[in-house]
C-alpha cells in the first residue's frame, strides 16, 4: 500500500473490531501502515494469525484479541487491558439473508443473532471504548448503504445498519463536548467473504448466476466495478485524520455511487 500524505497515525493507538478478515482487516492494515499501534478483535482464533501477519507486513505493533462482542463481561475484560485509544472502529458485524416468509427456528435464530452482534455488540464494544478515549478521539462505525435504503430478504441486516446510523448520530451529540468525533462509513458492495456469500444466496433465490448478480450491481453504480477492502479503508483513514476535523455525526457512503444521498 502506498504512503498517503497527511494521514500519519504514528504514536496513535487504534482498535478495530471484526478485523480478522474483510473490511476490518483492510482498515487495520491501513492504520498500521500509516504508523499506528493497532489492536484487532474478532470472535475466531484466527485473529491471532491475522495480527501476526499485519505486524509482519507493516512493521507495527498489532495485538489480536478473541472476543464475542455480545458478551459484555468479555468485552470489558479485554478493553480493561488497553491503556488508551485514539481511534475506535466498531466494524464487527454479521450479514445473512433473512426472508420474512421463512418461519423456521433457524431463520429466527439468525435474525436475533444479526441484531445481537450488529446492534447490541456495537453498543457494548463502543461503551467499553469510550472511557479509554483521549479527548479529541475518533469513533467510526461500519454501517452500510443499506442503512439508508433497503433490499429484499435482508431485513435483519438492513434494520441493524439503520440502527447503527442512529446510534452514531446520538453519540456525536453525547461525546462532542470532549471533542470526540463520531461518524459512520457506509460501504457498498466490497469483495469480502460475507458479501460474496450474500451475493450467492441472492443469485440462488433468483435462479441466476452470481456473476450476473455482480454485473447488475456494477451497472447500478456510477463507477463500475466492485471495490476492495483496501479501497474502502481509505474512508476510515480520512474520517480519523485532521482532514475531517469538522466532521461528526455524518455517514460517508463509500459505494462507487450506488446510493446518492
TrEMBL record:
<dbReference type="InterPro" id="IPR002347">
    <property type="entry name" value="SDR_fam"/>
</dbReference>
<dbReference type="Pfam" id="PF13561">
    <property type="entry name" value="adh_short_C2"/>
</dbReference>
<dbReference type="InterPro" id="IPR036291">
    <property type="entry name" value="NAD(P)-bd_dom_sf"/>
</dbReference>
<dbReference type="InterPro" id="IPR050259">
    <property type="entry name" value="SDR"/>
</dbReference>
<comment type="similarity">
    <text>Belongs to the short-chain dehydrogenases/reductases (SDR) family.</text>
</comment>
<dbReference type="GO" id="GO:0016491">
    <property type="term" value="F:oxidoreductase activity"/>
</dbReference>
<keyword id="KW-0614">Plasmid</keyword>
<keyword id="KW-0560">Oxidoreductase</keyword>
<protein>
    <submittedName>
        <fullName>SDR family oxidoreductase</fullName>
        <ecNumber>1.1.-.-</ecNumber>
    </submittedName>
</protein>
Amino acid at each position: 500500500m502506498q504512503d498517503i500524505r497527511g494521514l500519519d497515525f504514528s504514536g496513535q493507538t487504534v482498535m478495530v473490531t471484526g478485523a480478522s478478515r474483510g473490511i476490518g482487516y483492510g482498515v487495520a492494515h491501513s492504520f498500521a501502515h500509516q504508523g499506528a499501534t493497532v489492536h484487532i478483535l474478532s470472535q475466531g482464533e484466527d485473529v491471532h494469525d491475522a495480527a501476526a501477519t499485519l505486524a509482519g507486513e507493516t512493521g507495527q505493533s498489532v495485538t489480536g484479541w478473541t472476543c464475542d462482542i455480545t458478551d459484555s463481561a468479555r468485552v470489558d475484560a479485554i478493553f480493561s487491558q488497553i491503556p488508551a485509544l485514539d481511534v475506535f472502529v466498531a466494524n464487527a458485524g454479521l450479514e445473512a439473508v433473512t426472508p420474512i416468509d421463512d418461519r423456521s427456528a433457524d431463520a429466527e435464530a439468525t435474525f436475533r443473532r444479526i441484531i445481537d452482534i450488529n446492534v447490541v455488540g456495537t453498543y457494548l464494544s463502543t461503551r467499553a471504548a469510550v472511557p479509554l478515549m483521549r479527548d479529541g478521539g475518533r469513533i467510526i462505525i461500519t454501517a452500510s448503504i443499506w442503512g439508508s435504503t433497503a433490499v429484499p430478504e435482508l431485513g435483519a441486516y438492513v434494520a441493524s445498519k439503520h440502527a447503527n446510523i442512529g446510534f452514531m448520530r446520538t453519540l456525536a451529540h453525547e461525546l462532542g463536548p470532549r471533542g470526540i468525533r463520531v461518524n459512520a462509513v457506509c460501504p457498498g458492495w466490497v469483495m469480502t467473504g460475507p458479501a460474496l456469500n450474500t451475493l450467492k444466496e441472492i443469485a440462488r433465490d433468483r435462479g441466476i448466476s452470481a456473476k450476473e448478480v455482480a454485473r447488475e450491481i456494477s451497472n447500478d453504480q456510477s463507477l463500475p466495478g466492485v471495490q476492495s477492502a483496501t479501497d474502502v479503508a481509505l474512508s476510515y483513514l480520512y474520517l480519523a485524520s485532521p482532514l475531517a476535523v469538522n466532521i461528526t455525526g455524518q455517514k460517508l457512503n463509500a459505494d462507487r455511487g450506488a446510493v446518492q444521498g
